Amino acid sequence: MYEYAIGSEFVTSLLCLPLASQKMSTQGAPDWTCVLVGLSSGFVRIYTEVNTSLLTLLHHL
């Protein structure tokens, strides 16, 4: 098992989520991808495929 940390928080889950918009750019291909990172503190961070932070949420444990 691997352990990854962001500051003093540990990464508990990762999800790579391909997204498609309403536009038809390429049939069957995602328009862009986001990465969801779950942390041990209850935070969920969402990043673009080029590491731009989109959103940070705190889920109460």
Global mean pLDDT: 82
Helix/strand class: mainly beta
Number of strands: 5
Number of domains: 1
Contiguous uncertain segments of 5+ residues: none
- N→C terminal distance: 24 Å
Query: What is the CA-based Rg, rounded?
Result: 14 Å
Shape, per Cα inertia axes: elongated
- Largest beta sheet: strand ordering: 1-2-3-4-5
Count of runs of 4 or more consecutive helical residues: 0
Hey, roughly how much beta strand do the residues contain? Answer: over 45%
Looking at how many chains there are and whether they match, the oligomeric state comes to single chain
Order of helices and strands: EEEEE
What does this structure look like?
- The protein has one domain.
- 0% of the residues lie in helices and 54% in strands.
- It contains no helices and five strands.
- The chain has a five-stranded antiparallel sheet, with no helix packed on it.
- Strand 4 and strand 5 (53-58) form a beta hairpin.
- Residues 8-55 form the Rab3-GAP regulatory subunit N-terminal domain.
- It comes from Dreissena polymorpha.
- This is Rab3-GAP regulatory subunit N-terminal domain-containing protein.
Task: List descriptors.
5-stranded antiparallel sheet; mainly beta; 5 strands; 61 residues; single chain
